[in-house]
Amino acid sequence: MTTNKVNFWMVGFFCILGVFIGVVATYFVLKYLPEKNGATVPEEKKISLNLDGYGTIGSESAKATIVEFSDYQCPACGAFYEQIFPALKTKYIDTGKVRFVSKDFPLFSIHPYAEKAAEASHCALEQGKFWEMHGSLYGNQSAWSASKDSAKAFTGLAADLGLDAKNFKDCLDSKKHQQAVIDSLKEGAAAEVEGTPTFFINNKLTFFGAYPIESFDKALAAEGVE
């Protein structure tokens, strides 16, 4: 009899405790979840990004600006550039609808040459050939990634593109653009970039990954760009 009585009180106690927890949980859910009928729902967070000194293509007055955080040693970034970017450029950039900016997000832990490749792109920018170097770095990604001397490989690419090879090498050796690369990496991390490629459209985090052109069509349409 004693055991049954104890079990009865234990069952009762836990039933009351369960009801109490349920009431408290419901209160907090109703209190902190946004309401649908006329309530204020927080707006999508916008991030202010520094675009000065980075590779840019497209009209300054374009209705939409796409910012890509990329890693030159990242296969997915290479796939985006070779398979998706051409359609994006033809459809939106060349027609003045979109401005596209490339920013640096080298993943040091898995891509040991990515930071130096980003510096190489900045050295090419000095000579007015950022996009040529941008394309060459992706087009030759597997070759320079396997090189024992990445700086020599990058200087070779610069010479192939018609850049002043000596000035390019001096620029690369000086590490004068290293801080810009690091600053971009820090800015990306602060903006919740977790990998590459990551895209912001009009300062809103939009994609992480090499999404197809149809996804960009939809995202740009939401910004009023057809």
Please explain how this structure is put together.
The chain has a five-stranded mixed sheet with strand order 1-3-2-4-5. The chain has helices at 2-32, 75-93, 114-126, 130-139, 141-145, 150-160, 165-174, 178-190, 213-221; strands at 55-57, 64-70, 98-104, 198-201, 204-208. Helix 2 (75-93) links the parallel strand 2 (64-70) and strand 3. Helix 3 (114-126) crosses helix 8 and helix 6 runs antiparallel to helix 7 (165-174). The protein has two domains: 1-42; 55-221, Glutaredoxin, CATH 3.40.30. The chain is built from nine helices and five strands. It is α+β, with helices and mostly antiparallel strands.
Largest sheet: 5 strands, mixed
Mean pLDDT value: 86
What's the order of the H and E elements? Answer: HEEHEHHHHHHEEH
The value of Rg in angstroms is 26 Å
Total helices: the number is 9
Low-confidence spans: pLDDT under 50, at least 5 residues?
A: 1-43
Instruction: Label the structural class.
Output: alpha+beta
The total beta strand count reads 5
Strand order of the largest sheet: 1-3-2-4-5
CATH class of the largest domain: Alpha Beta
**For the record, what is the CATH homologous superfamily label of the largest domain?**
Glutaredoxin
Brief overview:
The protein has 226 residues and is α+β, with helices and mostly antiparallel strands. The chain is built from nine helices and five strands; from the N terminus they run αββαβααααααββα.
